[in-house]
């Protein structure tokens, strides 16, 4: 295990647990009611739902990594006067933004095309992870966070492109 994996694993879950009540309050996210929690936790789900949920998460993560790879591979062709480190940093900035905005759009698409039973499984997994909020509200919150993220990172992005 690398030190990066250790620190991400050690810091991210406590940060999410700490931020959860604040995000809930700020975005006015409503938790699943007790009847929904009881219903989704008492159901038996097919074993392949775990694989489908894993593919869902992989698709969300791959969007950001695709943007990062694009900046790393194609960036020198579009920005020939920039150093490679600047392009990687721009890729990292945009990777996070894509995770937020495009990830929210993918969530919306996947949520709409999912069966009711698979939606219950997703609710179950989210309740189990401690993030048991309404999916549509989560999607709206992700888009808002993404817009704020891009607005706040725009000066840095422009500085890196202009300098």
TrEMBL record:
Source superkingdom: Bacteria
Keywords on record: Membrane, Transmembrane, Transmembrane helix
TM region(s), chain numbering: 48-73, 85-110, 141-162
Name of the protein in question: Uncharacterized protein
